[in-house]
Each structure stands twice: as structure tokens, then as C-alpha cells.
Design brief:
Helices cover about 40% and strands about 15% of the residues. By secondary structure, it is α/β, with parallel strands linked by helices. Helix 3 (about 100-130) packs parallel to helix 4 (about 150-170).
């Protein structure tokens, strides 16, 4: 194979592709030749415009993972062989004050929807005898505890666990299942941290790279995991964090 990293001829679904990390992933996959279905609870028009401007191909799909079963009928006959589970939300409060509603909302989107979306994808590929790739977006809080984000931490530990069990079950079917754990990336989810001078300074002092990550820093790793170059990688949770965990 002359180009181990090409995604030409592949069809990818990226959830939460309307902004931030999801948008960067969608644009990167399209740049490697994939036809990218950009799913979001809001329109992905800006993402699709960026893909088109770079000569790529894509389409939009409205999915709101407040319903964890939102993607149950998406994969049948669609020819999708790459799934990127990126959609996620976060709620912040001291653990002693954390509400059941905030717990359920985060776990439904970040973990329950990830499992049932991936289940629907796997059923389709296994039923048709086709290989494929799953990449879920985990977090540094798949490894650490964090502060004031109990449901987010639990859900991202869950994503790491689901990655491993599905990798074990589906490797024999030619389906790789991996996760990427971003470090501190400049997105809406980290805006509260970046706006807090003390927290932002403490975070930057620990990152050997000395900066907040950009969403584009995640796209290349995801594209690699979807490519033929990563055909023997499965069950991995890869941190892309500027060196945070090594510190």
C-alpha cells in the first residue's frame, strides 16, 4: 500500500462536528480523502464550508445525543466504516452540590450515547462482514479525577472502559476501537478554566508544551487511528496533551 494514511473511499460519521474538536476532526478526515458526515445538534454549515473550501466532501446530519439512542437507525445501508464519537457536554459544581439532573445529562450524552451509537455501528459492519474503525474522544479525566466535574470524570472513565471491551469483542471482525484523550484544549468546554487566571496559570505551568492545545492538534491523531497505518492498534487510549501526563 503506497499511502498508509489515506482515507480515500471511506465514509466517516463525526458526532459533535459543528464546533471545536469535532469540527477539526471532520476537516482533517476530509483532507485525507474521507466523505465526512458531520453530525450535530446544531447545523454544521461552517464545518461543511471549510471542508468544501479545501476540496473535500461532506454532508450534514442533525443528531441530538440528549437522546442516547439518536443514532440507532443511522448506519443501516449507509456505507459508513469510520465512527468518531466526539459529542460531549460538561457540568461543573462541587461534588457535595452536584444534582441528579446534571449527572444524568452528562452521562447520557458522554457515555450512554457513545455505547449505543457504537453498538449500532458495530452491528451494521459485523452483519455485512466489513472492517471499520471507531475512535472515541476520551479525556485526561479518563486517567485522573479532576475537580468539580464528577459526572464528566465518570463518563470519560467509562469511555476508556468501553473502548477496551469493544476492542476485545470486535478485533476478530476487523474493527479497531480506540480513543484519544485530549489535554487542555481551547474549546467551549474549557472556557471557564481559561477565564480563571489562577486556574489557567496553574494548568499552563504543568504543560511542558507551554500552551493550551488547539482543536487541530487532535485531528491528526484521529485520522491516523482511522487509517490502514493503525490496523494493528486497538483498545488504546492515547493522550494528546502537550506532555501533561508525563509531568
Amino acid at each position: 500500500m503506497t499511502d498508509l494514511f489515506s482515507l480515500a473511499g471511506r465514509r466517516a460519521l463525526v458526532t459533535g462536528a459543528n464546533a471545536g474538536i469535532g469540527r477539526a476532526i471532520a476537516v482533517t478526515l476530509a483532507g485525507q480523502g474521507a466523505h465526512v458526515i458531520c453530525a450535530g445538534r446544531r447545523d454544521c454549515d461552517e464545518t461543511l464550508a471549510e471542508i468544501a473550501a479545501a476540496g473535500g466532501a461532506g454532508e450534514g446530519l442533525r443528531l441530538d445525543f440528549a437522546d442516547p439512542m439518536a443514532a440507532r437507525d443511522v448506519f443501516s445501508g449507509a456505507g459508513i466504516d469510520i465512527l468518531v464519537n466526539n459529542a460531549g457536554i460538561i457540568r461543573r459544581a462541587d461534588s457535595v452540590d452536584f444534582t441528579e439532573a446534571d449527572w444524568d445529562e452528562v452521562v447520557d450524552v458522554n457515555m450512554k450515547a457513545v455505547f449505543f451509537t457504537t453498538q449500532a455501528f458495530g452491528r451494521e459492519l459485523i452483519g455485512r462482514g466489513r472492517p471499520g474503525a471507531v475512535v472515541s474522544i476520551a479525556s485526561l479525566l479518563s486517567f485522573q479525577g479532576g475537580i468539580r466535574v464528577p459526572s464528566y470524570t465518570a463518563s470519560k472513565h467509562g469511555v476508556a472502559g468501553l473502548t477496551k471491551i469493544l476492542a476485545n469483542e470486535w478485533a476478530a471482525h476487523g474493527i479497531t476501537v480506540n480513543a484519544v484523550a485530549p489535554g487542555y484544549i481551547a474549546t467551549a468546554n474549557t472556557e471557564a478554566l481559561r477565564d480563571d487566571p489562577e486556574r489557567s496559570r496553574a494548568i499552563l505551568e504543568r504543560i511542558p508544551a507551554g500552551r493550551w492545545g488547539a482543536p487541530e492538534d487532535i485531528g491528526g491523531t484521529v485520522a491516523f487511528l482511522c487509517s490502514h497505518a493503525a490496523r494493528y492498534m486497538t483498545g488504546a487510549v492515547i493522550n494528546v496533551d502537550g506532555g501533561w501526563l508525563a509531568r
